[in-house]
Structures are given as C-alpha cells and as structure tokens.
Protein: Rrf2 family transcriptional regulator
Amino acid sequence: MRKDSRLSRVLHVLAHLGASENPMTSSQLARMLCTNPVVVRRTMGLLRDSGYVQTVQGRHGGWSLTRPLSDMTLLEIHKALGDTGLIGLSVTSEHGNCFIEKSVNLALTSVFNEAETLILARFGEISLDKLLQRRD
Structure:
C-alpha cells in the first residue's frame, strides 16, 4: 500500500518558501520534490485557496507565503490539503454477521480514533517555523 506523503512534501515546500527571499516557481519546486510542475500547482492551489500562499505573476514570479511560518500550524496545513485520514490501518467488514469481527472492529476503530485525535491535537501545537530549526 502506498503511503500518503503529501503533508510531508508540502511542509518541505512551505519551509523552503519561508526561508527564501524570492518567490519560487512550480518548476523549481517540482525539481526539488522530483515531481511534475502540474502536481505542484494542483497541491499549491489548495494552499492558495486556504490563504497560505499566493502566486506572483511576471518574470520574477512564483509561489510565496502570505504570512509567516510562525502563523501556520501543521493542523491548518493538514486541513487545507483535505483533512485525509492519518492512520493507514483499517478494519474489515467481510463477515458482517460475525460477532467476533464486530468486536475486533469496534476495539480497533476506538484505538484508531483516539490516536488520530491525539495526533491532530499535537499538530495544532506545532507552528511551521519549528520546521526550520536544525536537528542534526
């Protein structure tokens, strides 16, 4: 199963934009992420629609932040990307009449929900400027 790395990739981009004095083009960001500029534009469009980035037109144009990284949290960016599930595990419903499967699913779903609640709460506590602190 492929893991969703959009949040990590977008945080990487935002940190670079925060550290850059100039806007960065979709092509520059795509080279940095080893992807296609169309993918970058689509994803950055979600952040633009949510007010985190803007596009600057012209010869020296590109993507830039609309506010400092210290005014953005991991939770806000996660939500701007579509608030996808954080836990890659799921339950099965192949045996809908089996009380054991129902019991297992109830227990797992409870744990998954609790874990996701804790992760989202922690995301809300971390501002993006923390991403630029070296952790060598």
